[in-house]
């Protein structure tokens, strides 16, 4: 008998929670992140509390798990209900923390997710001064993907005043968020 969509996603969540194998956890989380790309799965993933699973996984030590969780959140946050859930669950802070990841894909997903989560209400969080300073650093990166995305963030989500304030502060600080490894 073929499993329905909800049952299949439930089996993945159960496997993620039950397995002790790091490789199996990574594979299952990667699958869940891929399923998060399809709007037909949004309701099921909310029902199965996969948004919480992704948010909780952002604090894991495994770079691969964090990458897949961040990618899953990035895929889910285009949906209005998912966006509101992430914002209400105080998800912006752990996403901002992912900006310091050495993993390029994690950083790219974090920047994109912050863009998707920006609303008039959340903008004070998503464009807080440390985030703008970080985007200024990223905009200078030799990595064109990161540089272009950070420049877009600065131009489309930040005010000129925020950018100038971050530039002024950056001149006076020696330590910033490190750039991801290529």
Automatic annotation (TrEMBL):
Pfam families in the record: Arm
InterPro entries per the UniProt record, alphabetical: ARM-like (IPR011989), ARM-type_fold (IPR016024), Armadillo (IPR000225), ARMC7 (IPR042462)
SMART domains from the UniProt entry: ARM
PANTHER family found in the cross-reference section: ARMADILLO REPEAT-CONTAINING PROTEIN 7
Protein name: ARMC7 protein
Organism of derivation: Crypturellus soui
Species lineage: Eukaryota, Metazoa, Chordata, Craniata, Vertebrata
């Amino acid at each position: 008998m073929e499993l329905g969509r909800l049952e299949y996603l439930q089996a993945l969540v159960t496997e993620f929670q039950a397995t002790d194998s790091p490789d199996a956890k990574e594979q299952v989380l990667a699958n869940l992140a891929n399923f998060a790309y399809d709007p037909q799965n949004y309701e099921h993933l909310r029902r199965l509390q996969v948004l919480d699973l992704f948010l909780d996984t952002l604090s894991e030590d495994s770079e691969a798990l964090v990458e897949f969780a961040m990618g899953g959140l990035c895929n889910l946050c285009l949906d209005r209900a998912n966006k509101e859930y992430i914002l209400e669950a105080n998800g912006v802070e752990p996403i901002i923390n992912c900006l310091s990841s050495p993993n390029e894909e994690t950083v790219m997903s974090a920047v994109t997710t912050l863009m998707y989560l920006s609303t008039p209400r959340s903008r004070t969080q998503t464009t807080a001064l440390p985030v703008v300073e970080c985007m200024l650093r990223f905009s200078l990166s030799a990595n064109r993907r990161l540089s272009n995305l950070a420049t877009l963030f600065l131009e489309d989500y930040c005010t000129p005043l925020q950018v100038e304030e971050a530039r002024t502060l950056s001149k006076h600080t020696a330590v910033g968020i490190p750039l991801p490894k290529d």
